[in-house]
Specification:
By secondary structure, the protein is an alpha/beta fold. The protein is about 30% helix and about 30% strand. Strand 11 (about 155-160), helix 4 (about 165-175) and strand 12 (about 180-185) form a beta-alpha-beta unit. The chain is globular and about 60 Å long. The two termini are about 15 Å apart. Bound molecules: NADP nicotinamide-adenine-dinucleotide phosphate.
Length: about 325
């Protein structure tokens, strides 16, 4: 089969052996796979514990073609990108692994995966939309609802609307009946989300946005992966007793971090990463119930993966970049 393989010398489209099915496992014929920023960080050597060779990719949708539990065969599925979360809902075990390094991932024609990682594809989604959901949806769900305990009617700021996780987080928060604010460098993305019910969308490169949102009374919850010095301004936007959920630091660490605002306003900070098996099930169930559609930026052929990776590196995407694997 064909697969996108990380090797010591780079990333290549290779002919590799097709997996066969072991006990407790299934083989999924991959229809579509989606990129996450993690894949780019791994390719660029900016991720801890890089091990080669490895098939990249954490997200996919497809059809089960082999499985010892025959009731799965022929079913359309999405796959939980994480395995061995462990017993604590709040944080994962030391055995936790994410598909696409160190374990072989989804950028391949076939995926060998534990049966416990399978969940039926929401019926309202195409394979391309469904592939865009798992990692970003899981991360957004765990951060907003399991960690920050976001409630209906609360005010939430989700930064960087063009990002994969942010775009699905926006849909989840809107469907949960929250008052939602966002930021984006992209005018079309700001317009898109305001049309979908976001109260205000700001250009984070124009520093006056902070004052604007402060004048509106600030927010109770912030979801952020941009980091950098702007995080100190964002602390200033949180109301007393506010909650900040942080899942990345695209712009590095804030220097210095404003500890005063933390204790003066009694802010709780949640460091958050991926989510449990229960989170994954709950997220898929919520997406099905509310017929949420992940925002798909583009669908490209697997052979065009370099273009897809570059698009993400250049931050040109609005939502998720999807690779078409099988039609
Ligand atoms: N902890 C976890 O479990 C977890 C899971 C997934 C991702 N992550 C991390 O989270 C980050 C985002 O991942 P992703 O896959 O969603 O990446 P992505 O699709 O590449 O999104 C990154 C987005 O960051 C936004 N951004 C850049 N500078 C910003 C700023 N100053 N203020 C606000 N937003 C800014 C941009 O938004 P605009 O395009 O709107 O300008 C960009 O689209 C990465 O660092 C990734 O490693 C962590």
């Amino acid at each position: 089969m064909q697969a996108i393989v990380l090797e010591d010398g780079g990333v290549f489209l290779r002919e590799v052996e097709q997996p066969s099915c072991d006990t407790g496992m299934a083989v999924v014929r991959v229809h579509a796979a989606a990129l996450n920023h993690r894949d780019v960080f791994i390719c660029d050597g900016k991720y801890p514990g890089i091990a080669t060779p490895c098939i990249l990719g954490a997200d996919c949708s497809g059809t089960v073609v082999e499985c010892e539990d025959r009731s799965w065969i022929g079913k359309s599925v999405v796959v939980n990108p994480g395995t061995q979360w462990g017993n604590h809902e709040d944080y994962h075990s030391s055995e936790y692994e994410i598909l696409g390094m160190p374990v072989d991932g989804t950028f391949a024609e076939f995926l060998h995966i534990p049966i416990s990682s399978l969940i039926e594809k929401p019926q309202h989604l195409s394979f391309e939309e469904a592939a865009a959901l798992p990692l970003a949806g899981l991360t957004a769900w765990h951060a907003l609802f399991s960690k920050a305990k976001l409630q209906t009617g609360e005010r939430v700021l989700i930064t960087g609307a063009g990002g994969g996780v942010s775009s699905i987080a926006l849909s989840l928060a809107l469907s949960a009946g929250c008052e939602v604010f966002t930021t984006s460098s992209k005018p079309e993305q700001r317009q898109y989300w305001v049309q979908r019910g976001v109260r205000d969308a700001y250009d984070y490169r124009d520093e006056t946005w902070i004052q604007h949102l402060r004048d509106l009374g600030g927010v109770q919850v912030v979801l952020d992966s941009s980091g950098g010095n702007q995080l100190n301004d964002i602390l200033g936007l949180l109301q007393r007793g506010g909650r900040l959920a942080v899942y990345g630091m695209t712009n590095g660490n804030p220097k210095p971090f404003d500890v005063f605002k933390l204790f003066w306003k009694q802010i709780t900070v949640y460091g958050t990463k991926m989510g449990s098996d229960k989170d994954f099930k709950d997220m898929i169930e919520f997406v099905s119930r509310h017929e949420i559609r992940p925002q798909v930026d583009s669908v490209m052929a697997m052979a065009d993966f370099e273009q897809a990776f570059q698009r993400m590196r250049d931050s040109r995407q609005t939502g998720k970049i999807v690779l078409q694997v099988h039609k």
